[in-house]
Amino acid sequence: MLVVSYRVNAQQLPSQRGYLNQGILWNPALTAPGSTWETGACYQQQWIQFPGAPSTLYVYGQVPFVELNMSAGLVAFMDEAGPFLQAGGQASYAYKIAPGFFWKDQLSIGISGKASRMRFDANRVVAYDEGDDLLSEDLSGEWGFDFGAGIFYTSHNTFDFDQNTWYTGISVDQLDQTVYRLGTDHRVYGNRMHWRALAGYRFIKYYHCWEPSIYADMVGGGLFNVGG
Q1: Cβ pair 153, 106 in contact under 8 A
Q2: How far is the C-alpha of 198 from the C-alpha of 201, rounded, in Å?
Q3: Are 49 and 36 in contact (CB under 8 A)?
Q4: 98-113: per-residue pLDDT in tens?
Q5: Can you give the residue range of the structural domain that contains 130?
Q6: pTM
Q7: Total domain count for the chain?
Q8: Is residue 14 situated within a structural domain?
């Protein structure tokens, strides 16, 4: 018998999407990027028709303080991926400056703090070895705390769809790499840092908008998702 082992890296957080109005979910520097208050909800499911496929629900609110060149926001989330369930909240803050490379350009620097509860539900396992003690019990949830940071630059700081604009940003989440200890024997599950990058261009012509963009998600030094 020949046995080969190989280390792989997998994502722990939902994949991002290239929608700037939901940027607070992926990059704290995109907290309230415009000049208006905003609330919303987002639901996404990956790998449809696969048992235990990841699904995520977000509810968020964000407020700009235009005269103070800053913004703040709150996010509540619930994430399910197979037997793992995570729920919690996140607070984000962004400060904005005008570098002066272009007229009305803007550089935002953001930070975020997150509190979440992780739980393992053995009843959600689709197939397993019945002799595996790990899967014979539910592992009681544990709270963890983590933080993230990001930057975002746009050549035109208004989001009124009145001018062509290009933008780019990068962020990192789970900087503290929180360790959860679940179950009576305190099994260890550790978070990994997740990097996200986004770039795009918004074309405005005769009250119409075309906005091609590309984003990438990375974890553990490997690329796991690219889209546009």
Answers
A1: yes
A2: 11
A3: no
A4: 998 888 899 999 999 9
A5: 20-227
A6: 0.78
A7: 1
A8: no
